[in-house]
Amino acid sequence: QVQLVESGGGLVQAGDSLRLSCAASGRAFGIYAMGWFRQAPGKEREFVAAISRGDSNTRYADSAAGRFTISRDNAKNTLYLQMNSLKAEDTAVYYCAASNLLFTTPSASGYPYWGQGTQVTVSS
Fold first, then answer.
1. How do residues 25-68 score in pLDDT, each as one tens digit?
2. What torsion, rounded to 10 degrees, do the Cα atoms 56, 60, 66, 72 define?
3. Helix (H, G, I), strand (E, B) or coil at 63
């Protein structure tokens, strides 16, 4: 089992950048595919980005493609989400999640392990 702790959220203005981090502990981080999800008030949790075990495959939601970059450092047991050109509609609690699957998936049901979330607020 793996434990996940997100950090790096905050209050920024539209057009700014933020980098979220997700520190993993417990079982070897490198065996998990990883994902970022977000949940805005009154809305369902939605997929943002995912990355394979070996960092060779990434996928993004349409809303994140071209602005967000997911990456991982297996030596540091850390997952990242670089977010550029932030918009007010990016305001949400952001969660990292770990999957036992061999491939990336945008489905939350594919991730049995979740962090507690970090708040990102973008003012317009």
1. 987 888 899 999 999 999 999 999 999 998 779 999 999 999 99
2. -40
3. coil
